[in-house]
Design a protein that fits this description.
single chain; 387 residues; alpha/beta; globular
């Protein structure tokens, strides 16, 4: 009787090793959004906050403390039109927008640009890789936002230790963790400065993927692309982005640049981006269509920035038989699909594909656009309110 039972269990026992050995640990991705320089738009609320704190003094103005406190007040009081949060590493929850039917979305959720961007990244990544087991943790990293190269080094030191600790914690929980950092403008130079800190710390730590949008390329930081800290680096730029090349205040260079010098180019995947029949501006790379003055409503990807489609751009970069470190990508929405055409700048060979998102994505686009249009005047009024 016992032999008969064992015989019946034999097929199951034989398959157990296959089930165990054939199961791979799902990779967990830690995605961090890093904003650029804070412009410090003068708002009544920010000024009022400083006045209450007694910070509006000539001494503070002369020693630079007033500017620092003002930027922090602007960060706290301003409306988030981009993935930006409090100072330091802050975990965010992806919005259900762009992943499910958006009928129940609240106004507060729609106003949280960081959560919306996390949702876009997650949906685009799964569209490309078709991996339901892939898990994510999303964060914003808030730095000073100062237009000062020395300040960015100081910010990078704090960022390094925050990222190291959080990646270690996630590794304990998930086992296999990759770190992806998305940056805008001088957030890219702050991230590159991580290499300088890494040389001193000498820890077993790596940034698996660094994606920089509109980074002002400067001699102070471009050398760090050779650091072993970074496994893969992408630099997305637009010839319509004039802000990227106008920085002459925080660099010893005459002006900042769009592209890396030849000796550093082999370490970076450089992507020239075009939209429709034009190219995106500095804000359209990262900021949503909230402020119409900074984002053209005529763009087919409105109201999302280029960075919302990051997984699509990176996928297109590696579709050539002969790898190229410098390509041009054209992105456009055509009805219910997104057309991507990539051109290898070295060989001029082209590759193109069409990405079709779930129907909920396009419904969410319509709702998000309607929300921004409907609430723009009221939110704009509140943003500049002096009461």
């Amino acid at each position: 009787m016992l032999r008969k039972r064992l015989w019946l269990l034999t097929p199951l026992l034989l398959t157990l090793p296959i089930l165990v050995w054939g199961t791979q640990t799902p990779k967990h991705t830690m995605v961090v959004f890093v904003h650029g320089t804070l412009a410090g738009i003068p708002t009544g609320k920010a000024i009022k906050t400083l006045n209450k704190k007694g910070s509006l003094t000539l001494t503070n103005a002369l020693n630079g403390k007033l500017c620092e406190e003002y930027l922090n007040a602007t960060r706290d009081q301003g409306i988030h039109v981009q993935p930006i949060g409090k100072l330091g590493l802050e975990r965010i929850t992806p919005s259900l927008l762009f992943t499910t039917a958006p009928a129940s979305k609240s106004v507060e959720e729609l106003d949280d640009a960081a959560s919306v961007m996390a949702s876009c990244f997650k949906q685009s990544h799964r569209l490309i890789h078709q991996d339901a087991n892939q898990t994510f943790s999303f964060y914003t990293y808030g730095w000073s936002g100062s237009l000062n190269s020395k300040a960015r080094v100081k910010d990078a030191e704090q960022m390094y230790h925050c990222l190291f600790r959080e990646k270690e914690a996630l590794t304990q929980a998930y086992g296999n963790v990759e770190l992806v950092i998305l940056t805008h403008s001088h957030g890219g130079n702050t991230a590159l400065n991580l290499a300088q800190i890494h040389e001193k710390e000498n820890e077993k730590f790596a940034v698996d993927c660094l994606v920089m949008f509109g980074v002002p390329v400067q001699s102070e930081t471009e050398k760090y692309v050779t650091s072993p800290l970074f496994k893969t680096i992408y630099s997305v730029y637009s010839k319509f982005d004039v802000i990227q090349v106008l920085d002459l205040l925080s660099t010893k260079d005459f002006f900042s640049r769009r592209c890396f010098k030849k000796k550093y180019a082999p370490y970076v995947h450089q992507i020239q981006i075009k939209l429709d029949k034009t190219a995106p501006g500095h804000c359209e790379l990262w900021i949503n269509g909230y402020f119409f003055a900074l984002y053209r409503k005529s763009l087919s990807i409105y109201p999302l920035p280029v960075s919302a489609f990051t997984p699509l751009l990176l996928h297109a970069t590696h579709q050539f038989e002969k790898p190229s470190k410098h390509i041009k990508i054209h992105l456009a929405r055509q009805k219910d699909a997104y057309l991507i055409t990539a051109t290898n700048k070295a060989t001029q060979k082209k590759w193109s594909t069409t990405h079709i998102y779930p129907s909920s994505w396009y419904t969410s686009i319509a709702q998000y656009s309607g929300h921004l249009k409907k609430h723009f005047k009221n939110l704009y009024k509140n943003y500049f309110s002096r009461s």
